[in-house]
């Protein structure tokens, strides 16, 4: 198969952008965050927003990050929402490339992910994806997820709206998407491939 037909997305295409002069803050454990100056009101509010100090949060037996689902959400498309269960077995996740979901051409939609944070505070999380059709990159998305602390209930993060491709070319093939969740150190927490078709 020639390179132009290769639909896979290489690792170096999923590198998050960096901001010149931005220094990644020192990572702290959940215990270290809990011990931070309790008299600082703004710091207390920030810690509360991450669930630090709340009961029912951290569980050392849980993974740092668990992805539950990815959804394409639209106010104008029939059904309004089409989703992928990311808690399936590895084989079933691999099969997502061969079983594309279908979205309506030309409608506005947002990518949304549902995830849980289990054992520690995760800071500077980003969601990235690269979309290829017939081996050619047709779209890239990089969105800040933010910083989250452990809690029992899942979080849901919805990203900026995009317009689904339209026209004969858009309908002519399968769009292969490689998605990744990373932190501001570049550590990869999730990496999976899926596909969609435009109708």
How is this structure best described in words?
- The chain is mainly β.
- It has a domain at 60-198: Coagulation Factor XIII, Chain A, domain 1, CATH 2.70.50.30.
- The chain has four helices and nine strands, in the order ααββαβββββαββ.
Topology overview:
Layout: H1 30-35, H2 41-49, E1 65-73, E2 81-85, H3 90-94, E3 101-103, E4 108-117, E5 122-133, E6 136-148, E7 155-163, H4 168-171, E8 175-182, E9 188-198
Helix content: 10-25%
Beta-strand percentage?
Answer: 35-45%
User: Sheet with the most strands?
Assistant: 5 strands, mixed
Q: How many extended strands?
A: 9
Q: State the helix count.
A: 4
InterPro entries: Ig_E-set, Rho_GDI, RhoGDI_dom_sf
GO cellular component, one term: membrane
Family: Belongs to the Rho GDI family.
Pfam families: Rho_GDI (PF02115)
Feature tags:
single chain; 199 residues; mainly beta; Coagulation Factor XIII, Chain A, domain 1; five-stranded mixed β-sheet; four-stranded antiparallel β-sheet; 40% strand; elongated; disordered N terminus; Ig_E-set; cytoplasm; RhoGDI_dom_sf
In short:
It is elongated, with a radius of gyration of 19 Å. The chain is 12% helix and 40% strand.
């Amino acid at each position: 198969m020639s390179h132009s037909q290769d639909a896979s997305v290489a690792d170096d295409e999923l590198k998050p952008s960096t901001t010149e002069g931005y220094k990644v803050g020192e990572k702290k454990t959940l215990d270290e965050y809990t011990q931070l100056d309790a008299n600082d009101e703004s710091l207390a509010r920030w810690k509360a927003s991450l669930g630090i100090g709340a009961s029912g949060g951290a569980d050392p037996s849980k993974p740092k990050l668990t992805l539950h689902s990815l959804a394409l959400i639209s106010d104008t498309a029939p059904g309004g929402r089409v989703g992928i269960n990311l808690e399936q077995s590895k084989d079933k996740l691999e099969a997502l490339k061969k079983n594309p979901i279908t979205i309506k051409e030309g409608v506005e939609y947002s990518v949304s992910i549902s995830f849980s944070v289990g054992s520690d505070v995760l800071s500077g999380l980003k969601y990235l994806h690269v979309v290829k059709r017939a081996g050619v990159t047709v779209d890239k998305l990089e969105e800040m997820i933010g910083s989250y602390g452990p809690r029992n209930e899942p979080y849901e993060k919805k990203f900026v709206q995009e317009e689904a491709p339209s026209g004969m070319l858009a309908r002519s093939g399968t769009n292969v998407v490689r998605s990744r969740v990373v932190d501001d150190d570049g550590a990869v927490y999730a990496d999976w491939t899926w596909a969609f078709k435009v109708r």
